[in-house]
Amino acid sequence: MPAKGKHRRPKSLRFTRSIAVAGTGGAALALPLMGATGAHAATPATAVAQHVEKAAAAAPAAEKTVTTRTYAVRAGDYLSKIADEHNVSGGWKKIYSDNRSAIGGDPSLIHPGLKLSLGKKAAFAGAAHSATRTSAPAAKTTQATPAADTAPSNSASAESGSGYTLPVQGGSVGTGYKVAGSMWSSGYHTGVDFVVPTGTTIKSIAAGTVVSAGWGGAYGNQVVIQHADGKYSQYAHMSSLSVSAGQTVTAGQQIGLSGATGNVTGPHLHFEIRTTPDYGSDVDPVAYLRSHGVAVG
Q1: 280: which residues sit within 8 A by CB, 6+ positions away?
Q2: Which candidate, 22, 195, 230, 241, has a CA 20 to 30 Å from the CA of 41?
Q3: What is the pLDDT of residue 67?
Q4: Domain CATH number, residue 182
Q5: Reported pTM
Q6: Rounded to an integer, what distance in angstroms lies between the CA atom of residue 173 and that of residue 268?
């Protein structure tokens, strides 16, 4: 006997799928279309997305591989010395550019204890921004600018046919040679001062060989060059140096920038002519330059 009660028809299961009808020569085929979320199949689009995500995640790691060093300034330091000792690509200008906000507007005024980053910006410029920044080539051009000064300047040949030139252009003559005063160890001024602002280009007065380049006590950053006639020229109180001992230079070549390092009351170039590379062998620098056809003052 049939069971009592109403017979319940079992409910059909619902499938969340779409039916696509495609014609094939008059016949129709019903094709189920399953979404990617249902099938969980990797499509070319998802593969590309995953590759991009992995590349983006790897980019910061690549940047971290670039070494960034921190240096604490010590007494007697100056930017070109730090650049040479730590092999900084781009020299003192690179250090100054990367740390300008900490150093300020005068690259010669760095005090003991100041923390400098060596190579910091190179890490970002070489990785994340290399494809988008257009200033990188310009930066290289700027670094190469001092090299253009290695050739004799036009002003040198214009002022003297003997291959001599003024050590600095555009400056007025300040304290003269042999001016008496108790502030000087010898009792008089052993050179002549050219009053110029910090950062003015300092040039070798003639061809020669750099005898010394570095810290000179009361003279601050200084360069001493021996010339063919046996005389020595000295350039003192510089904010930075562009040459090193043993280097050969030409007349008018840039050897550094003026500043106010050492025992000074303001920025200027102290210039001497000596018969030896040492203090106390000075001769009249103005008379020396004039004897070589260079107009002074």
Answers
A1: 186, 190
A2: 22
A3: 66
A4: 2.70.70.10
A5: 0.49
A6: 10
